Fold this sequence. Notes:
The chain is α/β, with parallel strands linked by helices. The chain is built from ten helices and eight strands.
Amino acid sequence: MSAAGPSQGANRSPSGGSAAASVSGAASVGVQSSGHGPPLVLLHGWAMHSGIWGPIVAQLARHHRVHAVDLPGHGRSAPVTPCTLDAMVAAIDSAFAGERPLAVLGWSLGGLVAMRWANSRPERVNRLVLVCATPRFVAGTDWPHAMDKETLMRFGDELHVAWKLTVQRFLALQVHGSERGRATLAALREQLWARGEPSRRALSETLEVLATADLRDEAACIAQPTLVVAGARDTLCWPAAGQWLAAAIPHARFAEIAGSAHAPFLSHRDELLALLEDFLDAR
């Protein structure tokens, strides 16, 4: 297709179409758009795709032009080479060339992308929502709010042996402890292969991004109004990490959803939507 960004309605219908926006020198990025109003970009987590947002898109699209993005190497988006956080941000940013300032919601891995995007292109991103996000996914001597690095890297090792089972185990980790865990896991599994199998190389490389990224020093530089939402039972992005982010980002506020683990947009949709609508509609 042409290099038209989502604001130019490239191959999209008002009711919500999808296409891969491409820019010279950048990876092709899949974007599914729907609704009318101020633009809102949704960035999903590792091994998933933009279809995972289905349960909340219709509600958000009542007042926003919602752009659900496939991260590079996921869904309909081509991988980026080399696969770095900056390269992922550059590919997504290029897909929105010419678009007016955006509100950006990032979940999990998408939260890392959203934070780096907000810092690197503040003129593009005007509001930020971080759902079950963390500046650092692995624990360290000065960062207790995360899983052991060995646990996350074990997923990387197992990707080379039985990658589908490894992804399934990662999904189970996301709902561990949720009061609605069984139904949430079923919803995640239903969506997992809905857009074909992801690139195994992309899975491995983006898992490495999760294992190595540390955005703690960048948090204080995020100037946009920010909502940080944590799941009270999240064992992947701990609530304490969300509290830390909300304290570190100058114009941030924190909300915790009781009973939720790592995917509140599936398990606690109404609670999350109420938080989003209150924040996104604030002026």
